[in-house]
Amino acid sequence: MTYARLGCKRCLYTPDHALGLTLDAEGICSGCRIHEEKDTLDWAARWDKLEKLVAPYRSAGAKNYDCIVPVSGANDSYWIVHLVKHKLGLNPLLVTYNKYFNTSLGIRNLANLRIKFDCDIFYQNVNPRSVKKIVRTTLREFGSLYWHCLAGQTVFPVQTAVRYQVPLIIWGAHQGLEQVGMFSHEHEVEMTRRYRKDHDLMGYEADDLLTTFDTLKEEDIWQYRYPDDAALNGIGVRGIYLGNFVRWDPKAQHEQMVERFDYRSARFARTFDTYDHVDCWNFMDLHDQLKLYKHGYSKVTDHACREIRHGRLTREQAIALVKRHEQQPLQHVDKFCEWLGLDRSGLQFMMDRWRNPAHWSATSPGEYAFTGWSTRFQEDPAYTPSDLGGAASFIANDELAHDGKPGYIVVGKGYPA
User: Fold this and answer.
1) What is the arrangement of strands in the sheet containing 168-171, beginning at the earlier edge strand?
2) CB 285 within 8 A of CB 334
3) Distance CA 400, CA 103 (A)
4) CA within 13 Å, CB half, 340
5) What confidence category does residue 393 fall into, taking pLDDT thresholds of 50, 70 and 90?
6) Residue 270 C-beta-side C-alpha neighbours within 13 Å
7) pLDDT of residue 380
8) Helix %, strand %, coil % for the chain, to 5?
9) What DSSP line would sit under 49-89, residue for residue?
10) Tens digits of per-residue pLDDT, 204-234?
11) Quick one: pLDDT band at residue 417, thresholds 50, 70, 90?
12) Average pLDDT in the 106-130 region?
């Protein structure tokens, strides 16, 4: 069987990855090769370069913010703000987009972030009626309930930079670099409109959603428009990635933030990572299931590949974890159906339309056999869960329903609609 069929000899990615990757003559993927830079680059020198880069953006006389930092109640937000405020000594304006799928744990983490780091924060609340209309459209047209989240999270910081004339936006790590080695750290790529559209937004800008065959109107989508080039160039907006200047390691970073700033984490059924996406009921549930339908792998594979590269999991352990988690049943789909006004059978009918025939085979009406990535890997029959030991030890010090109420926490315009 060829490398192209089995994928990388080191991690679990294959050339079928949604972002695209390549395999070299030794059968090692581009993502693993770029990860090797983390052990060879002079990170002290790269940090010095970052300090010189941000120096001109310090507000004269502290009359304005120094930079914009996008945040949420999960992911690497604490680490990013820690580096920006405590290490670089900048005064950031934090911005966050209300995804409406909020867990109470995410709301708690976001409030704690603002308090512990003593930062100003802006919330973007788009009319929930418009958000629901967008979700119906994107779910139907390209199998995504998360387009509005990705669009809002990537455009609101840029809009805020233009509105308040704060040209520097500081992001965390670049997904394309971290997962598939799309760039080298030394390329120092920056956030672009093109990358956002092609990869974050699946090729659809807000205006692409407007057709004569849909109910979406101008008033539903205008807030998701990326500023034009004249507005960006007028103040010199640029978005840099800290991952180009800091050795990025989400597990180690989160554990520092748990200890120092009381970041809270929770367990998921569909992955072993307890830190990512604890702010959302859907990302590691319904959204993750759609990813498996469309691409033949889910977030647990991303987490497993990352941990292999950092040397905390063997390939055998990673395969066992993927097989254990990726087919776990959805736990929170009823919340989504209630919020959007769907029944489960209607939702499943829409989701089934997005099963990729390269990874799913229909066995009978409404029944499918999975032939995705993990079926290509042979699991050692003598290998048991106990063999994992502490290899996948992630701290879980809270629950998604932090306040004991397992429902969407809506804020701003979100209540009561």
Assistant:
1) 120-124, 92-97, 67-70, 168-171, 238-241
2) no
3) 6
4) 23
5) confident
6) 27
7) 62
8) 50, 10, 45
9) HHHHHHGGGSPGGG-S-SEEEE--SSTTHHHHHIIIIIIS-
10) 999 999 998 889 999 999 999 999 999 999 9
11) very low
12) 96
Q: Which residues contact 63 (CB under 8 A, 6 or more apart)?
A: none
Model pLDDT, residue 274: 97
Distance CA 347, CA 80 (A): 36
- The end-to-end CA distance of the chain, in Å, is 54
Q: Is 281 exposed, middle or buried (0-12, 13-18, 19+ CB in 10 A)?
A: buried
The two three-digit tokens of residue 124, written as one number: 């973007």
Sign of CA dihedral 66, 67, 72, 74: negative
Give the C-alpha distances (Å, rounded to integers) separating 237 from 161, 172, 197, 204. Answer: 7, 17, 18, 22
Q: Work out the percent of the chain whose per-residue pLDDT is above 90.
A: 89
Query: Any idea what DSSP says for residue 269?
Result: S
Which amino acid type is present at position 186? E
Structure-token pair, residue 153: 């999270």
User: Is residue 388 pLDDT above 80, yes or no?
Assistant: no
pTM of the model: 0.95
For 262-306, write each residue's pLDDT tens digit. Answer: 999 999 999 999 999 999 999 999 999 999 999 999 999 999 999
**Residue where the block lists tokens 């040397």:** 311
